[in-house]
């Protein structure tokens, strides 16, 4: 496994495994154990995923020492604000039976995320969180948070894939030394991602799958991808991305695929904020 250094010196694996939509407890435990077994060390969950207990159970059952694992969770909108956020993070620790979390993110830039961030800063200073950051923050909100807080966000987890490459976002995250993570690096297969002929041609050149090409493209951009699958063979494929390098021509060809729009929804639209708020009301 290769690692990146966050802006506070913490080492984070350069590829991660996400557990979004894996809601069955037994399946989630199995999947996380499989992911750790094939070599993943970064496990990404969230309060809203409803599977923190399962992730914790897998950590307990794993033979890999806790200090070799990098565990992330995210504070949900309904837990926004200082007191609620702090209590929810303590609850996440108990659910996963952990003494500390490696990374805690604000899940969405909605509700009292400033209060949430203050709670995260305090828990960071107490040593219960090794790094703090955000998720789905566009450059304007990220810069605002970075400029007016003692502890800058270490990570920003956003949607990045060949059809939504987030070049402007990367510019500002780099300016403030915030590590980008990519959720939905395959766009969940939307818009024919896995059938794209350019990606398939590049894959054939290296005897790699489209998924491996996408993950390698992200790594070469300095972005940490979070791939999700419940299939162990695909887990093995998705982590086997350190033994080849895309050429400049390959990178440019993938750059031409950018549609500059989300495959899901735009977090900056008022309707998106209303939709997210409706999930907790």
TrEMBL record:
<dbReference type="InterPro" id="IPR018170">
    <property type="entry name" value="Aldo/ket_reductase_CS"/>
</dbReference>
<keyword id="KW-0560">Oxidoreductase</keyword>
<dbReference type="InterPro" id="IPR023210">
    <property type="entry name" value="NADP_OxRdtase_dom"/>
</dbReference>
<dbReference type="GO" id="GO:0016616">
    <property type="term" value="F:oxidoreductase activity, acting on the CH-OH group of donors, NAD or NADP as acceptor"/>
</dbReference>
<dbReference type="InterPro" id="IPR020471">
    <property type="entry name" value="AKR"/>
</dbReference>
<comment type="similarity">
    <text>Belongs to the aldo/keto reductase family.</text>
</comment>
<feature type="active site" description="Proton donor">
    <location>
        <position position="49"/>
    </location>
</feature>
<feature type="binding site">
    <location>
        <position position="107"/>
    </location>
    <ligand>
        <name>substrate</name>
    </ligand>
</feature>
<keyword id="KW-0521">NADP</keyword>
<feature type="site" description="Lowers pKa of active site Tyr">
    <location>
        <position position="74"/>
    </location>
</feature>
<protein>
    <submittedName>
        <fullName>Aldo/keto reductase</fullName>
    </submittedName>
</protein>
<dbReference type="InterPro" id="IPR036812">
    <property type="entry name" value="NAD(P)_OxRdtase_dom_sf"/>
</dbReference>
<feature type="domain" description="NADP-dependent oxidoreductase">
    <location>
        <begin position="16"/>
        <end position="258"/>
    </location>
</feature>
<dbReference type="Pfam" id="PF00248">
    <property type="entry name" value="Aldo_ket_red"/>
</dbReference>
